[in-house]
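1st attempt posting a full record on here, be nice pls
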Amino acid sequence: MTKTVTSLFHSEHHANEAASRLKQAGIPASAIDIWTTPHNLAPLLEDLGVSRSDAHAYAEGVIRGGTVVIVKCDAPEVGAVVGILDQEGVLDLDEQQAAWRSEGWEGPGEQAAERTESSEPAHADIEPDRTEVIVQGRIRVQSFRVERPARE
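the predicted structure (as tokens):
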């Protein structure tokens, strides 16, 4: 089962340092995405299994000058990935959202915050199974199992 690990960094420098350490640990560069602009970030994260509210919070973090790192890895690699990201100055998304709300940020609307069971997956022939796990409140790990229908 593929896991998607997402994290918000204070700066692009810290994100790049984390990516460099991930590569040194054997994570392929093709499995690491660094986002410094919010354009299409929230929909991409939602397609990867991130909740709508978290996806929009990550995009807000980028708007406010942060950088998002997304790592796709296998389950046995999650601990190492989280450990590396956690050592490089990752921000606590929950704390950031609370601070932004105190400044007047509203996040996605109530409708947007709730993902319904009837939502269509990004690709009609793929049925994702998504489970969100919060690790230390700072790094999100989503399970993303893709089952493809049998072709006759």
